[in-house]
Design the sequence.
């Protein structure tokens, strides 16, 4: 019984193993294999290199070969779908050329379809091949463009929100730092990099520089180091983007929204805006990445990107695209998104980065078209630096790429390894951007003086036409969206207004002391200029007030309106009181007494000093100067009273000149006293602003 049982088990086992043994024998004897057919250029023509639309079909081709690699006719090839889903598709036989052609219809499911072709019953190596078929909807290009446009819009909106919020938070302090720490070119470059890194806008830094030069707080040559530093600061954006923080974008948006709408203090709400902008920036990148995903298998696009390794073409594309979207940081973000998809090699990314550096000069140039001469000089300097650096680099791109790889993670990467490319190329591109701009600064910084003289020779100062005197020079409507910079420009214009008033006050004494009546018509013309400036500055400050201002910026705007009015009042006194008074003195035909003349001259000098101190206190926000003005203002009121008493004593003594010119003398001294008073009002307003700022620094809104 036991022997029978063993025999039965052996029979059953042999029956079970028979199919496998027969298959193994067949496989061992099978003289065929499958391969993807290729064209004369060695490219696959298997049917899975080009996309197919849903509802349509494509041919999947398999080449049947014998052991000698020759085509075989009449061999059955089976085709199975393994994703999405699993099912048997069908079979076909190879023709005389060894090709088995199967018509595959993907249905209405888009995405990546995976199909396996295999020889019937043959499972040895080479007995099957795999097809990856990208299936797209007919309108995929339109939806991809929607995704790219929307993602880019979110990216730019987030960057603008982040930049504006950072400027509101730190713009005033950044202006102070730029204005005081740029005497040394190397220190200026460091400050320019730090300021631009904080406010995330090299254009904003450039506008600040222009306002400082126009206000004579800096020389044009000093700005060149800051410009080079600002270019380094912009690379920080690319470095942040390369960290691929897209996974945390929605978290940053949520936190930013919470701080913006639940924060009680303005600083917290401002921080919320910064986080919200930062999150939207990265979410925009994520949207662009998802929109670009179908391009991974779109051969025309991949061939176009391969062509960007041509340096001239890459630089041209980078320049045009950056000039089109008006943001080098945004285009750098697009480049890094492409790299994160595994589309770009470093050799293709570097020319695009170089082009973006030139394209940002186009932006600066367009912004300076209607600006002053100093702004155009800054734009020209920026352009010369960038174009010169790109021209010097364009012939060394392969060597530069090797150097970047040597100092970056990943090193040299096989272009076929798209996973490694997507992981490491973004960081290498960001490093190339940083290294280029740092090298540019190190090379050009020692020669900023030479460049400054060259640009001054190319764009020398010119005499301002008389008909342009009545127009404001520094009020840029395009800067209203950035209140800290708009306030800077308004301040520069008010300082210019104050300088005109000081010159008027200086000249206004000439008809009284030197009988120079010709100056009166010019004083009248300049008073019209002051009226015009008052109108434009006030309107500009009102427009600034319509923006989202911090408490400090609101107080600064109010101070500026007050200072503007004080200068307009002084100009009115000169035109409406001193001019008629000069004519009255001329009609009298008498001069002041020697003592009276001396008193008028002394009091006039003190009035001019007060106007100058007011300008200094306003320009430098100097607490010490403002306090000194208020002390002297009280002293000058007493002095005017003493001079008036002395004049009455001369009249009592019947000094002929004093009696003849008494009305003119008293009216003139009273006018000078009122001009002194308006200057002192500027100092009092500055002191009040500083006191309120100290008291309300930490008060919730």
Sequence:
């Amino acid at each position: 019984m036991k022997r029978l049982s063993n025999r039965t088990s052996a029979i059953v086992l042999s029956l079970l193993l028979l199919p496998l043994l027969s298959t193994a024998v067949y496989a061992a004897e099978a003289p065929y294999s499958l391969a993807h057919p290729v064209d004369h250029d060695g490219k696959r023509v298997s049917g899975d290199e080009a996309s197919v639309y849903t509802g349509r079909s494509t041919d999947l081709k398999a080449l049947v070969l014998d052991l000698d690699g020759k085509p075989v006719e009449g061999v059955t090839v089976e085709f199975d779908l393994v994703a999405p889903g699993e099912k048997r598709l069908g079979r076909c036989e190879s023709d005389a050329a060894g090709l088995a052609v199967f018509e595959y219809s993907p249905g209405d499911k888009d995405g990546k379809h995976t199909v396996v072709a295999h020889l019937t019953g043959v499972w040895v190596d080479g007995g099957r091949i795999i097809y990856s078929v990208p299936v797209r909807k007919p309108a995929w290009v339109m939806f991809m463009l929607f995704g790219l446009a929307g993602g880019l819009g979110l990216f730019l909106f987030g960057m603008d929100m982040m930049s504006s919020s950072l400027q509101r938070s730190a713009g005033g302090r950044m202006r102070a730092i730029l204005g005081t720490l740029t005497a040394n070119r190397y220190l200026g470059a460091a400050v320019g990099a730090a300021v631009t890194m904080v406010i995330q806008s090299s254009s904003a830094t450039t506008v600040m520089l222009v306002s400082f030069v126009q206000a004579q707080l800096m020389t044009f040559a000093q700005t060149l180091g800051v410009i080079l530093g600002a270019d380094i600061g912009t690379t920080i954006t690319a470095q942040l983007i390369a960290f691929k923080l897209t996974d945390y974008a929605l978290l940053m948006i949520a936190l930013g929204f919470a701080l913006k709408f639940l924060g009680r203090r303005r600083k917290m709400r401002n921080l919320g805006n910064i986080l919200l902008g930062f999150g939207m920036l990265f979410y925009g990148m994520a949207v662009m990445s998802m929109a670009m995903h179908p391009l991974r298998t779109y051969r025309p696009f991949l061939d176009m990107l391969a062509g960007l390794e041509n340096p001239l073409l890459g630089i041209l594309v980078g320049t045009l695209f950056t000039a089109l979207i008006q943001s080098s940081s945004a285009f750098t973000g697009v480049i890094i998104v492409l790299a994160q998809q595994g589309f770009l090699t470093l050799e293709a990314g570097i020319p695009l980065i170089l082009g973006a550096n030139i394209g940002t000069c186009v932006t600066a140039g367009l912004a300076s078209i209607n600006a002053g001469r100093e702004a155009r000089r800054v734009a020209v300097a920026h352009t010369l630096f960038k174009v010169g650096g790109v021209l010097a680099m364009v012939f060394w791109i392969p060597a530069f790429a090797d150097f970047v790889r040597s100092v970056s993670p990943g090193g040299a990467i096989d272009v076929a390894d798209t996973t490694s490319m997507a992981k490491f190329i973004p960081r290498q591109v960001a490093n190339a951007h940083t290294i280029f701009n740092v090298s540019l600064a190190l090379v050009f910084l020692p020669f900023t003086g030479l460049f400054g003289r060259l640009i001054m020779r190319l764009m020398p100062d010119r005499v301002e036409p008389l008909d342009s005197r009545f127009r404001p020079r520094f009020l840029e409507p395009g800067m209203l969206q950035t209140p800290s910079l708009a306030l800077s420009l308004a301040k520069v214009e008010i300082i210019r207004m104050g300088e005109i008033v000081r010159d008027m006050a200086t000249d206004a004494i000439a008809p009284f002391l030197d009988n120079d009546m010709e100056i009166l018509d010019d004083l009248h013309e300049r008073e019209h200029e002051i009226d015009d400036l008052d109108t434009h500055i006030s309107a500009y400050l009102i427009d600034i007030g319509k923006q989202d201002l911090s408490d400090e910026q609101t107080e600064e705007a109010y101070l500026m309106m007050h200072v503007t009015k004080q200068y307009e009042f002084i100009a009115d006194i000169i035109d409406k009181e001193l001019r008629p008074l000069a004519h009255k003195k001329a009609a009298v035909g008498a001069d002041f007494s020697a003592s009276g003349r001396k008193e008028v001259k002394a009091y006039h000098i003190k009035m001019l000093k007060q106007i100058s101190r007011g300008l200094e206190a306003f320009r430098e926000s100097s607490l010490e100067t403002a306090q000194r003005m208020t002390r002297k203002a009280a002293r000058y009121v007493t002095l005017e009273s003493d001079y008036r008493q002395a004049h009455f004593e001369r009249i009592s003594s019947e000094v002929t000149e004093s009696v003849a010119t008494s009305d003119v003398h008293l009216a003139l001294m009273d006018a000078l006293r009122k001009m002194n008073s308006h200057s002192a009002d500027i100092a009092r307003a500055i002191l009040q602003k500083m006191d309120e700022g100290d008291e309300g620094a930490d008060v919730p809104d």
